[in-house]
Automatic annotation (TrEMBL):
Primary gene name: pelA
Residue numbers annotated as active site: 527
Lyase is among the record's keywords: yes
Catalytic activity, EC: 3.1.1.11
Family under the similarity heading: Belongs to the pectinesterase family.
Name of the protein in its database record: Pectinesterase
Length: 672
């Protein structure tokens, strides 16, 4: 896409603005029009030079200009003297409403025709002001020197920061848009300022349920979170400001993966939130003043976007000066309804330009990862993929060597399936706390009949020889019945240093294979560890969220082992006091707790027969040298077992999970 410098000057003038001591604000665009519509020859004229003298007078000593001043209007001697005094104050210098940037452009145009060094020096002084005003995190405040209140927020509102970035970008690309060439030292500062400005833009792109969307009109300078400005400008996602940010990002040549991902994500959001079938009508009085704005149904109307949308779900809202959100434009008073741009079409220019840009830079049309055995997933586009599902889809089937998918921190709302042909796969998170795979399916939501539970998983493993490490795997549906976080059906699967979060049926450890859970945190309410697998749980915390049952094994009749818990902590919410260690989903269930610390929430009888008297003869429930307030072996149900030292010896990791019990060959779980 060819860069178009003109779009950056499309500004929205909001409300009545104040400038101290010189003249009342006016809202016509004559000053702006002079800058942008006069031809080059005019800038040689005496009229242009006279206006230039005004521009020099209005420039504060710090280098910036106040906003909304019609600088072409003649000044009296008294006004000139007052301006000379105000130079010293540096008050009201800003980049809001195009201020400073447009004055610098005027000086550049007149310098090109006159070569008057005063104009060049004033321009360079303005640029120094811009560079000085930038925060260390790359953002710019609305006013500098800083003013208290929302003025110190990082300001995208009315394209304040984007206007700055576009100017810097011209210098970085060495275009001829500005007639003034920068000294080397200043050019280096410009390049650094642009680089960290882009970084700030990427960091402030809002994530909604883990998915990148758009930007707020202003962001907190410390936390980078969406922030409030005026009473009716609440934290929200902004269609208009976000559009100009994306146009800036799309103008960058050879964009990084992060920039490409930011653009793709924002465009997807624009498509998602666009409003069709609605037309904005204006009602005018006899002298041409707008007296009302109305939204009219019109199936042929072009797409529009709300100015403010809810951070949680993109719902448009509207406000009067009392700051109370309203659902429709008609609900707010005349003054704000008619005096503010509540709907805009700016995102359409992004959509119009996007297809050509996409052909050139689209992240998802790139070649396969450089190393097909070391793949990186990152939501910010810095990896090979932004989606775990996409990464798995593009791995080799039945590989001889292990494929590791490293997942950078983020909340990945994905329903992930590791298919049978994805054997020898490892999903490794950047950190257990911050690499989160989440989904919210549950029994009634899935609605596939009596077996709907088995479709509710967040992550499903059907392949052999899989490792899950440093992850949080969550079913976020809440207490709504059966809702699985992790389902494992296969053999030689290791889950290491992971959080498994949910309520009923959190972990479905099933199939006839062998599974190893090490250093994990597993929580739930009812039967939250269930299934038929041979599974060894070592040094895990098993946390009950309500009075119910921990395990519901369905061990096959011919299995030597079922669930074995060794060196685990069995804990609970503070108000939980009646929990069973297990009950038999199928009558040959096997579950053993060894050397575990049992909290006082464990019932003295320990085990439940699930109203299956026959299971008391066929199930095998046992303990060995547990400890804690919940360990009361003399009070356990009589059909459970306390292992002898000799019996306990067979419950070693090698005996339960090993393949080479009688040899020194390395076992599958020893290289984790």
């Amino acid at each position: 896409m060819k860069f178009n410098p003109n779009y950056k000057f499309i500004l929205v003038v909001i409300g009545l603005c104040f400038f101290t001591g010189i003249s009342a604000q006016v809202h016509d665009k004559s000053w702006r029009n002079i800058i942008h519509t006069k031809d080059a020859v005019w800038f040689q004229s005496d009229e242009a030079k006279q206006i230039a003298e005004n521009v020099l007078l209005y420039q504060r000593n710090i280098g910036g200009w106040p906003k909304n001043v019609q600088m072409h209007l003649p000044l009296s001697q008294a006004e000139k003297e007052e301006l000379m005094k105000q130079k010293q104050t540096n008050e009201e210098t800003t980049t809001d409403n195009g201020a400073t940037i447009q004055e610098m452009l005027f000086l550049s145009k007149i310098y090109a025709q006159t070569k008057d060094e005063r104009y060049k020096n004033a321009f360079l002084k303005g640029l120094d002001y811009i560079l000085e005003a930038q925060y260390d995190n790359g953002g710019w405040p609305q006013f500098y020197p800083l003013k208290k209140g929302y003025y110190s927020h990082i300001t995208y509102n009315d394209n304040s920061m984007v206007n700055i970035m576009n100017m810097l970008h011209h210098f970085k690309k060495n275009t001829d848009y500005y007639s003034i060439k920068l000294p080397k030292a200043q050019l280096e500062r410009v390049n650094d300022a642009f680089r960290i400005g882009v970084d700030c833009i990427l960091k402030t792109q809002y994530k909604q349920n883990g998915v990148l969307t758009a930007w707020c009109a202003q962001h907190d300078a410390e936390t980078l979170e969406p922030a409030k400005a005026r009473a009716y400008e609440l934290p929200s996602l902004s269609g208009a400001e976000s559009a100009h940010i994306v146009m800036l990002l799309m103008s960058i040549e050879n964009p990084s993966k992060e920039i490409i991902n930011a653009v793709n994500s924002a465009v997807a959001w624009f498509e998602k939130v666009k409003i069709t079938g609605l037309r904005k009508d204006r009602v005018y009085n006899d002298v041409g003043k707008i007296i009302d704005k109305r939204m009219i149904p019109d199936e042929n109307a072009p797409a529009i976007w709300a100015r403010f949308m809810e951070l949680e779900d993109n719902t448009p809202f509207f406000c009067d000066r009392d700051g109370v959100k309203k659902a429709t434009l008609a609900e707010i008073g005349d003054e704000r309804r008619n005096g503010y741009a509540w709907y805009r079409n700016d995102p359409q220019m992004v959509l119009d330009a996007y297809l050509d840009w996409k052909k050139k830079y689209d992240l998802f049309q790139k070649n396969s990862p450089s190393n097909p055995f070391k793949i990186v997933v990152a939501q910010d586009g810095s990896g090979d993929y932004t989606s775990i599902v996409e990464a798995i889809k593009n791995t080799k089937a039945f590989p001889y060597d292990r494929i590791t998918i490293f997942i950078k921190n983020g909340v990945y709302k994905e329903k992930v399936k590791i298919h049978e042909w994805n054997q020898n796969l490892a999903l490794v998170g950047e950190s257990k706390e911050n690499t989160i795979i989440t989904y919210d399916d549950y029994f009634n939501k899935v609605g596939l009949g009596r077996n709907s539970t088995f479709y509710t998983y967040t992550l499903l493993v059907e392949a052999n020889n899989v490792i899950l490490k440093n992850l949080t795997i969550e079913n976020s549906s809440g207490e709504v019945g059966q809702a699985v976080a992790l389902s494992v059906f296969s053999d030689e699967v290791a889950v290491v240093n992971c959080n498994l979060l949910g309520n009923q049926d959190t972990l479905y450890a099933s199939g006839k294979g062998k599974q190893y859970y090490k250093n994990c945190y597993i929580e739930g309410t009812t039967d939250f560890i269930f299934g038929s697998a041979t599974a060894f749980f070592e040094n895990c915390e098993i946390y009950s969220k309500k009075n119910s049952y921990i395990t519901a094994a369905s061990t096959p009749k011919d299995s030597l082992f079922g669930y074995v818990f060794k060196d685990c902590k069995i804990t609970a919410d503070k108000d939980v006091d009646k929990v069973y260690l297990g009950r038999p989903w199928r009558v040959y269930a096997q579950t053993v707790f060894m050397n575990c610390e049992l909290g006082k929430h464990i019932l003295p009888i320990g085990w439940h027969n699930w109203s299956k008297p026959e299971a008391e003869k066929t199930a095998f429930y046992a303990e060995y040298e547990n400890k804690g307030e919940g360990y009361k072996p003399s009070e356990r149900v009589e059909w459970s077992h306390q292992l002898t030292k000799r019996e306990a010896k067979k419950y070693t990791l090698k005996n339960v999970l090993g393949k080479y019990k009688e040899t020194s060959k390395k076992e599958w779980y020893e290289s984790l």
